[in-house]
Amino acid sequence: EDYSPIRIIGKGAFGTAHIVQHKATGERFVLKRVRLARQSAKERQYSVRELLLLSNLQHRNVLQFKGCWVEGGCNLCLLVELCESGDLFTQLRLRVRGGGLRLHEAGALLTALAYLHRSNIVHRDLKTANILVTAEGCLKVADFGLSTMLESGRLTRTVVGTPNYMSGEVLQGKPYGTPNDVWGLGCVLFELSALKPAFQAFNMAGLVKKVTSAPAPQLPSCYSEQWRGLVRSMLAKEPETRPSAEQLLELEWLQ
User: Fold this and answer.
1) Domain locations along the chain
2) How far is it, in rounded angstroms, from Cα 201 to Cα 187?
3) Is 66 annotated as a binding residue?
4) Which of 175, 137, 140 is nearest to 54 (CA)?
């Protein structure tokens, strides 16, 4: 009752997402309303997981949790900050963004990733569609429905995520951990630079072969060797050879 709906920005089988306005302050947010009764047990688990993870995260480059409640006994309502400029995937598709290196954006995303990993959280679905942009241009990592918490040093085997951004270890059903997120962010940085996905194929078998066996994709020579080397290191096929987000943040030229 404290919020007035402005418009729908997302609608699916299990719920809706509205831009809403607080009646007293005029501030705008996004209200995700999930119909729990229409979800499977696993989908309900993802909804609750996103709620629990978001409510405990506080970082400039992570989508901010504002509140939650149950409505009518069957709708889970999640209130988050509004990112007026949409997501990176849409910006790239609509050519709102030109090519070009934005070091401060790379640093912001690496800082967010390092924060998540220090909190023992593996995002597991980093992609351009899950990075939102505020009106001021601040990038926000979002969509924690597939994220998981790992005890320090532990790995998981659950195959989740978006295939074009999956690392070789995930595609092959091997144990994986935080290096999988480094790979995902490497795919994002490649896409932002080259204006095309790092890995594409006509089918899943072709994608697995490209990711696990084919030479790593190369950025255009117009980019510095430092930048090309950074992205190349994040897309190393062996997870143990990928640098951590913390290690990448130590690079002087990136600071």
Assistant:
1) 3-81, 88-254
2) 15
3) no
4) 140
- Angle made by CA atoms 124, 127, 133, in degrees to the nearest 5: 120
Sequential DSSP letters for 177-224: -HHHHHHHHHHHHHHHHHSS-S---SSHHHHHHHHHTSPPP---TTS-
The predicted-structure confidence for 66-82, as pLDDT tens digits, reads as follows 998 888 778 888 899 99
Per-residue confidence (pLDDT) for residue 142, from 0 to 100: 92
Considering the segment(s) 88-254 as one domain, its CATH architecture is: Orthogonal Bundle (1.10)
pTM value > 0.70: yes
* Torsion angle of C-alpha atoms 120, 78, 32, 85, degrees rounded to 10: -60
Using CA atoms, how far apart are residues 127 and 165, in angstroms rounded to an integer?
A: 7
CATH ID of 3-81, from 3.40.190.10, 3.90.1150.10, 3.40.50.720, 3.30.200.20: 3.30.200.20
* Residues tagged active-site: 125
Tokens (6 digits) for 87 = 């997501």
